[in-house]
Amino acid sequence: MSNAEINTIREYLKQHGFSNVALIDDLVDHLATEIELIQADTGADFEEAFTSAKEKLLPETPHELEIDLKLLTTQKHNIMIKKIAFIGGYLSAICLTVSILFAILSFQNNYQVSIRRKVIKSQYLSSNIQEEATPETISDIYNTYHNETSLLKLQSLNQLGISQMLMVVSILIFSTTYLPYQFYSRYQRSELELLAS
Amino acid sequence: MYSRELLKGILKPIILKLLNDHGKMYGYEIVQHVKASSQGKVLIKEGSLYPSLHALTKEGYLETEAVMVGNRTRKYYRLTGKGKEAVAPAVNEVIEFQATLSTLFGKPKTALS
Fold it and tell me: Which of A46, B58, B65, B74 suits a disulfide with B69, CB 3.0-4.6 Å?
């Protein structure tokens, strides 16, 4: 078979969306062997034999072969990426949920602190503070109120800190696992669509 | 001729067994050999063969040797060490599967039985 004929087969494959050099080499040899056999059996010219070989050997849409190859050779890799992405997505969702829970607890405790202080203040003022109390005495009283609720306030601040930390962890996990997977799978899909078109 | 769906699962053992028996083969040779050995009942389509050969190569079961035939490259596939180790388990699995299918569907009865 001449160089020009080999090039015709190669160009035909490239025009039909084949880009994998190893696969093109395999198919060129496969088609060329079939063409040679057809020519030996029937005496047909290259064009006739090539048409018969294409009809006999290649699927209706030849590029399907390369798509199948791509799917088959990246299957394990894709499964592993999917697993990592979904585990990452799951962990991220858990972190976000717990973070929201801690934020709610923190706001609740903070609210309780302010309510308690108001209650204590009004109770104390109505029952204990006399009209002639000096500003220093009132200041001491306020300090006492604050000490009584400071533990709750500290707890609220701790919870807010944990919530913020979990929120950061959640965003980090999401942006390093699930998000890249989404981009990667969309990229792959668009590449396959390009191959198919 | 068996359907493509039936052949899909046994393509890998077929390729491994053939290459184990014959050393090295190229794609066209594999298709023709299987066709002849099975009296035309097992027809491997090129659309299934090459993706499988490439996947097995990528997984380390096969290696290739490129030889120039006239003005084109012919790739011969042969088993690697890992591929040779995989032959017996793959073949045994098919044989076991065949036995299970016999118990499921029953063996063909003779006229006298």
Answer: B74
Q: What is the pLDDT of residues A86-134, one digit of tens each?
A: 999 999 999 999 999 999 999 998 898 888 778 777 766 666 655 666 6
Q: Contacts of residue B66 in chain A, CB cutoff 8 Å?
A: 25
Query: Exposed/middle/buried for A64, CB within 10 Å: 0-12, 13-18, 19+?
Result: middle
Which residues lie closer than 8 Å to B40 by C-beta, 6 or more apart? Answer: B1
Closest by CA to B92, choosing from B6, B13, B4, is B13
> Are the Cβ atoms of B54 and A22 closer than 8 angstroms?
yes
Q: Are A32 and B26 in contact (CB under 8 A)?
A: no
ipTM: 0.81
CB–CB of A166/A96 below 8 Å? yes
The beta strands (E) that lie in chain B are given as: 24-26, 62-69, 72-79
Predicted confidence (pLDDT) per residue in B39-48, tens digit: 887 888 877 8
Nearest to B46 by CA among A152, A62, A102: A62
Domain residue ranges in chain B: 4-105
Q: Kindly determine whether residue A65 and residue B46, on different chains, have CB atoms separated by under 8 Å.
A: yes
Separation CA A127–CA A121 (nearest Å): 10
Which A residues in the span 35-64 are in contact with B, Cβ-Cβ below 8 Å?
A: 57-59, 64
The side-by-side arrangement of strands in the sheet containing B72-79 is B24-26, B72-79, B62-69
- β-strand partners of B68: B73
